[in-house]
Design a protein that fits this description.
Layout lengths: L13 H19 L9 E5 L5 H9 L4 E6 L2 H10 L9 E3 L12 E7 L8 H10 L1 E12 L5 E3 L3 H16 L10 H7 L3 E12 L4 H17 L2 H6 L5 H12 L8 E12 L3
Parallel strand pairs: 1-2, 1-4, 2-3, 4-5
Antiparallel strand pairs: 5-8, 6-8, 7-8
Length: 272
């Protein structure tokens, strides 16, 4: 599977597309406030999905020359619609990161967000991307790490459904714990001047917008999205799943609900 993507654990149902949009709206400033590309620079967004992150790129770098690609034609169609109602100057291309349709040294900058976790060989993907990056160009990569979360109330039931998500993604060839590996992955792929920073999300009821946007619309919805897959993989049964989701939703209930999670953002340069 070195030259293919793992199956997308969350699926492509409409509720997942909405979850991605909600997630982007909630996390936009946290993850992207320091991503800004110069006017006229050629930027590749690799793995644009439904265009949720594309909107942030356009907002912060309106004069950059951005190209977005994804392996899923359905996602590309959603992305085109999300960006200016489908009437966008940004080219959206269907392509595989392991078989990129660009010449070496094409782009000044590359941006990739929530993609490596779904690939069976993320280091190879980074090497392929580095090949089409100009010397001195930068790559920005953002990933989460499902092992970084803690929440209250904590319980075996809530942990069970959370671990179903982690285990299902692993069985499909992905790695939901990849955030902690960004630095070594970038290093082994041959990048230089690597700088990785954690981006913490903390949601309690003094921050209701985070409870709504992150704990409810991002986390609980994400876990709910693997319900059927977890049953098919025999990671759970209906009784355990229902009890686990009930327990997980309590992390969004006042006054005791708390959820904490870490994302990781790496910025690295191709050798001049």
């Amino acid at each position: 599977m070195t030259n293919a993507s793992a199956e997308y654990v969350h699926g492509y149902a409409e509720n997942e597309l909405q979850r991605l949009r909600d997630q982007s709206d909630t996390l936009g400033d946290l993850l992207h406030h320091d991503t800004c590309y110069p006017p006229g620079s050629r930027v590749l967004e690799a793995g644009c999905g439904v265009g949720a992150q594309t909107i942030n790129l356009l907002k912060n770098s309106p004069e950059a020359d951005i190209t977005s690609l994804d392996i899923s034609l359905e996602s590309i169609q959603s992305a085109r619609h999300a960006v200016s109602g489908g009437d966008s100057a940004i080219p959206f291309l269907q392509a595989n990161i392991f078989d990129l349709p660009f010449a070496p040294n094409t782009f000044d900058h590359i941006f990739i967000c929530f993609v490596l976790e779904h690939l069976p060989n993320p280091e190879e993907a980074l090497q392929r991307l580095k090949n089409i990056l100009k010397p001195g160009g930068t790559l920005t990569v953002i990933e989460g790490d499902h092992g970084s979360c803690f929440f209250s109330p904590d319980s075996e039931q809530a942990r069970h459904v959370w671990n179903c998500l982690v285990d299902a993604q692993a069985q499909l060839g992905g790695d939901s714990l990849i955030g902690r590996r960004l630095y070594p992955l970038l290093h082994h792929a041959g990048f230089q001047q690597i700088h990785v920073t954690p981006r913490f999300v903390y949601a309690d009821h003094s921050r209701p917008q985070w409870v709504e946007g992150f704990t409810i619309k991002t986390i609980c919805t994400m876990v709910e999205g693997v319900h059927q897959r977890a049953l098919e993989m025999k990671l759970t049964n209906e009784k355990r799943w229902d009890a686990g989701m009930k327990a997980l939703r309590k992390t969004a209930e006042a006054p005791d609900g708390v959820f904490n999670y870490s994302f990781f953002k790496g910025i690295a340069m191709k050798k001049v």
